[in-house]
């Protein structure tokens, strides 16, 4: 009985350590004094981080990635919100159909979705325009805010809504003063999920605007092919840190286990 | 409170815009890609609107078939590893304290969301001669001299399993968190050790979710694009374009 406990704890921690190990190593190499790929690092130098934000070669892709991610997550939430609201407010086959449609893009491998957008925007003649990647990311990731918002709407205490309505509040007033404040954490978590994945997404971005814009994942991949620079490690560390930070914020402001489908205990 | 449908057609307005966006920017692009796959390919992205099956004929040529075969083998192995590691891990996770759960869920979400370029770079560093486990092995005296473990097929398997594992965990997490505690208690009362309870009760109970997750991880892995390129190098690369 004891043995089983020891074995399972050991297994859990080995998996955990292997999961974190790659990031410890890149954090280490990112502070190397010289332009070398060594771990443990030789010397200590934060200059590579400064390069990421000051060197135009790295700053431009960083800004491109951030702009795409902000626009795409806003758009995804704007598309998902009315669908989730409508399906909470009414029960119609049409509403269910649209929600089902919203769940589709995320089920197929992104390579397939990327190919679809590539052919589509080439046919339309908009290939390479900034807004195409924003639309492509928003559609590809709309499933995430749709799921978080649907969970959020389910959670609303309907007696509050009925109370406000019986006191004469109109549909718009109910939405603004009762529904929105209660749904806000789910709006934010939906936004965060899209933001993080869009920031890191490679294949759809490369197939829609790859010839015109360079995002940070593209920059890292291209730099990887032409040799090594510690700025790559610094960029990766910044991305890992912001990804973990954003998900931690989601966890802090909403119920992460529940958002991921755990039974509420 | 819940109505079956809006009172006036105007009530449908909020959902019409999202519906339009999804049709115009998902159904239509997807359809146009399927349509284009039947058009005559003139090379360099140009095409002629003539119905043909030649693109599919090229797909079953020996070259594409061998590429496809490697993709399927790798995806199969990775899905297997991801389930074998991910299932027990998730089972331990759902039984852990809430704080532990939240911590590892954040880690798993992060790994899953991170760009493959970053994961690939991190793994190629971890498997490199100068900054990776080679150094560790040398320091521990396991190997005479530090060596590099990437690029190789093993590196691809490790790297892709690394991103498939969190996917497995997030697929299984909602299912395993719904296990009634009574079930394990019952098997324990009947004298089974926790390990036996896990292998003889919990695993067989979840045959269906395991198979479904396996298929989903398999498809997910097939879509992995950058990692094989970074970790396999050119010769054994299984990039499909």
Automatic annotation (TrEMBL), chain A:
Entry's Gene Ontology BP terms: transmembrane transport
Annotated Gene Ontology cellular component terms: plasma membrane
Database matches in InterPro entries: MetI-like (IPR000515), MetI-like_sf (IPR035906)
Alphabetical keyword list: Cell inner membrane, Cell membrane, Membrane, Transmembrane, Transmembrane helix, Transport
Main location: membrane
Keyword Ion transport among record annotations: no
Transport in keyword set: yes
Membrane topology type: Multi-pass membrane protein
Places the protein is found: Cell inner membrane; Cell membrane
ABC transmembrane type-1 domain span: 62-250
SUPFAM superfamilies, per database record: MetI-like
UniProt record similarity statement: Belongs to the binding-protein-dependent transport system permease family.
Protein name: ABC transporter permease
Organism field: Alloyangia mangrovi
TrEMBL record, chain B:
Main location: membrane
UniProt subcellular location: Cell membrane
A Pfam family matched in the record: BPD_transp_1
Nucleotide-binding found in the keyword field: no
Keywords, sorted A to Z: Cell membrane, Membrane, Transmembrane, Transmembrane helix, Transport
PROSITE patterns: ABC_TM1
Keyword Transmembrane helix in record: yes
Membrane topology note: Multi-pass membrane protein
Domain ABC transmembrane type-1: residue ranges: 68-241
Membrane-crossing segments per the record: 12-39, 59-90, 102-123, 149-173, 210-231
Family according to the record: Belongs to the binding-protein-dependent transport system permease family. CysTW subfamily.
Protein name: ABC transporter permease
Organism: Alloyangia mangrovi
